[in-house]
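Memo to structure team: turn this sequence into structure tokens by end of day. - J.P.
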Amino acid sequence: MLFDKFSARSLQLANRMVMAPMTRNRATTAHMPDALMATYYGQRATAGLILTEGTAPSPNGLGYPRIPGLYDRAQVDAWKAVTASVHTPGGKIFVQLMHCGRVGHVANLPAGAEVLGPGTVVCPGEMYTDSLGMQPHSAPRAMTEADIAHAVQEHATSAKLALEAGFDGVELHGANGYLIEQFLNPLVNLRTDGHGGNIEGRNRLALEIARAAVTAIGRDRVGMRLSPYGVFNGTGEFPDVRAQYIALANSLSQLGLLYIHLVDHSSMGAPPVPADFKLELRAAFDGLFILSGGFDRLSAEQALLDQRGDLIAFGRPFLANPDLVARMREDAPLNAPDMATFYLPGAKGYTDYPALTV
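Reply from structure team:
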């Protein structure tokens, strides 16, 4: 099943393998995608669906050094080379829209941009900057209702620009402690207004952004990534996590979202997402379900056979193996990822992983 063609709604995929979004920090210092990025994604175009690295829908959303943006005309034009590199050999590609929220440092932001969040609590830990090295995260400014409305509109505008750039759709990043999850998680969201305080309030921003994106480009081109039980960037489990995410899945289903992409980082040491909860979440959502988290060929095939998901996402295996589909199909050995080069500029550890010799 993993290598079979798959069709559903707007998707006609060569196989059920998804390249997961992975931050690589190879954009220019001006947050523009470049020719090296086009090569990287083009090398991996045999994936059924590619999800790009997190891409900021606004200057305020950038957070990290050398991550790409998608909020102005120059970026649209630059992304066209990336989408063409994937489409020419027959691949499909969605851009992941990631607003970092409070996960950022002012040294990484362009002039006039600022670090924002649901409140003023600083994200724990440190953030790399090209100019100052490792630094504590900058203190965020608490978003007003006007700020929230503006961020929602920024996602909608970026979704429209994504189609202009040639993307097949967008994934809204509601995981890993970035802006959407900052509002979802009560360990971070301490608000008592309409965007906090209870399940409905905490889910509100995610649904507002999803609704705006669906209105902008159509429900068949919008998915969302979620990480219940995640522990990145100051998030973590909370008492009504199940009830909240089931409610969210139901609401996203009513909006007609194309897919939910579920994150389970237990293979990297995070707490596992309980298996029964995954099934509950899948049952609550009337759309495609993408599973991710430490899969190999056998476990991916079994998950599909058990109907636990429709598509399977692979992260680091695609990072180190541009021809992962062929390698898995042939049970060939996989290249090991070079972790030392994950976030450094340049081709090393990015576009120089060897492919199978014919």
